[in-house]
Design a protein that fits this description.
Layout lengths: L1 E5 L8 E5 L9 E11 L1 H8 L12 E2 L4 E8 L11 E4 L12 E5 L3 E3 L6 H5 L2 H14 L7 E4 L5 H13 L2 E6 L4 H7 L3 E4 L5 H4 L3 E6 L3 H7 L3 E9 L6 H6 L3 E4 L6 H12 L7 E6 L3 H10 L5 E5 L3
Parallel strand pairs: 9-10, 9-12, 10-11, 12-13, 13-14, 15-16
Antiparallel strand pairs: 1-2, 1-4, 3-5, 3-7, 3-16, 5-6, 6-8
Helix pairs in contact: 3-4
Length: about 300
């Protein structure tokens, strides 16, 4: 099969579009014919070697942990799916990923894809939407009537977070560039802050939840806008739990996990019209390096997707 793999860590040039062995489904696995693979910042972070202390990969490695496709084979003890089923998933990030024509993943990680989406748009959902779901609902316990500040609200994770928070009945404040302000309002944000024109801590006070997708100085400043007893969830970098405790708030770092049940609920929300993935660009699998350059630049509205099977 064709796949995009890395044989060493480095820049986009280390991505090799090449022949690779077709995987065999192991016990509990599905073999999936990949139609599309979403592109996420974790892909280029792994490619650059930033996660080597956490994830010890055996090279060569196939990247990409957002997939939509069709079940080609069912391994022993893999239940709930049959050959020909359309699925989407956020596979185990410790295994080879979806930048390939075929992917072996655990059946327990997969869910029937949303009926109203094609494979390209379905592949844009799992990792980013699960990240938003787990941050807002599992960690922050966001509830109706609360106020949430979502950083980079036009981005891959952010645009799902805005929609999910509004579905829950929360009041949403989003930060983004000026060019994306109307897009974020259309997603459901009641207040939008152009980060280039306004320091968000000068405009916001006493929020219940901050969803930090930026890290660094943005994260440090975010503590100032939380009410006492509020929650900050970061998906970018850890923080000082002592600082959080001294401010009377709770803070937690999140690394998204596969969850078929949550994907099933997201599919219901998508098919019901409450959530819609935004895809800024679709590139062929052979142009994965270009997709990484676009993702690394940090200006993508919604998601980037690699189309594997037309």
């Amino acid at each position: 099969m064709k796949a995009v793999r890395i044989h060493g860590y480095g820049g986009p040039e280390v991505l090799a579009y090449e022949d690779a062995p077709k995987p065999e489904p192991g016990r509990g696995d599905l073999l999936v014919r990949v139609h599309a693979a979403g592109v996420n910042p974790v892909d280029w972070k792994i490619r650059e070697g930033h996660l080597r202390p956490l994830l010890r990969y055996r090279l060569p490695l196939t990247l990409g942990w957002d997939v939509s496709g069709v079940v080609e084979a069912v391994g022993p003890d893999a239940h709930g799916f049959a050959i020909g089923d359309e699925i989407y998933a956020r596979p185990d990030i410790s295994r080879d990923g979806a930048y390939a024509e075929y992917l072996a993943l655990r059946a327990v990680e997969a869910s029937p894809k949303p009926k109203t989406l094609d494979h390209v748009h379905a592949a844009a959902v799992p990792l980013a939407a699960l990240t938003a779901w787990q941050a807002l609902f599992d960690v922050a316990k966001l509830a109706a009537g609360q106020r949430v500040l979502i950083h980079a609200a036009a981005g891959g994770v952010g645009h799902f977070a805005v929609q999910l928070a509004r579905w829950k009945g929360a009041s949403v404040i989003g930060t983004c560039s000026g060019r994306n302000a109307e897009f974020v309002r259309a997603l459901g944000a009641e207040e939008v802050i152009d980060y280039a024109a306004t320091r968000f801590e000068d405009a916001v006070r006493d929020v219940d939840v901050v969803f930090d997708t930026m890290g660094g100085d943005v994260q440090r400043r975010s503590f100032r806008v939380l009410r006492r007893g509020g929650v900050l969830v970061s998906i970018v970098e850890p923080f000082s739990r002592l600082k959080a405790a001294l401010r009377g708030v709770r803070a937690q770092f999140l690394f998204v996990q596969p969850h078929a049940g949550q994907l099933a609920e997201l599919a219901r929300l998508i098919d019901g019209g409450a959530v819609k993935p935004a895809v800024e660009a679709v590139l062929p699998l052979a142009e994965a390096s270009r997709a990484h350059e676009l993702s690394r630049a940090g200006r993508t509205r919604g998601k980037l997707v690699l189309q594997v099977l037309a």
